[in-house]
Amino acid sequence: MLALTILLTACGFRLQGTTPLPFERLSITIPDNTQFGADVRRAIRAASPDTVIVSNEPLLKGEKPNFQAQLQQVSVSRNIREVSLNPQGRVEEYELTLIFTFRLVNARSEIILPDTTLVTVRDLPYDDNVVQAKEGEIATLFEQMQRSMVDRLMRRITSPDVIQTYERLERKAAQEK
Hints:
- This protein has helices spanning about 1-10, 35-45, 130-155, 160-175, and strands at about 25-30, 50-55, 70-85, 90-105, 110-125.
- It is α/β, with parallel strands linked by helices.
- The model has no long low-confidence stretch (mean pLDDT about 85).
- Helix content is about 35%, strand content about 30%.
- Strands 2-1-3-4-5 form a five-stranded mixed β-sheet.
- α2 packs parallel to α3.
- The protein has a single domain, classed as Lipoprotein like domain (Double Stranded RNA Binding Domain).
- Belongs to the LptE lipoprotein family.
């Protein structure tokens, strides 16, 4: 076991770990009174403990924003679609879809990450003899899909290209001053 560990570290292998966000103050327009909003905030705090999540209050005319970047929710939707019917015309399978569109902008409203849409789809076999159980299963599946969506969102906003774009915009703004 020790030899394997030494061999792996010698070749440069290391666990991915978390990538902190390049900004210290982040505003989020995803409602914080939803499970999805709470999960996003929790994931950001875990991945980037030095980043402070600031309140998303409207600015007065001429007032400067108190954030360096803002994660904006453009849209979110949940859809349930009938995929197949049995010979009696009853639903045999549903398709659950969760669609989330967001963008990341800086305090000057310059786009760091343009509108990005994340889609998660799950199939659910259905039996109308156990309606209550299937309704609970649908709710559980949507919760799992949201957690998966939060993970994908975090990977996207902490990606190297997003960090480089933010830093390039900040250097440009500093040169213009």
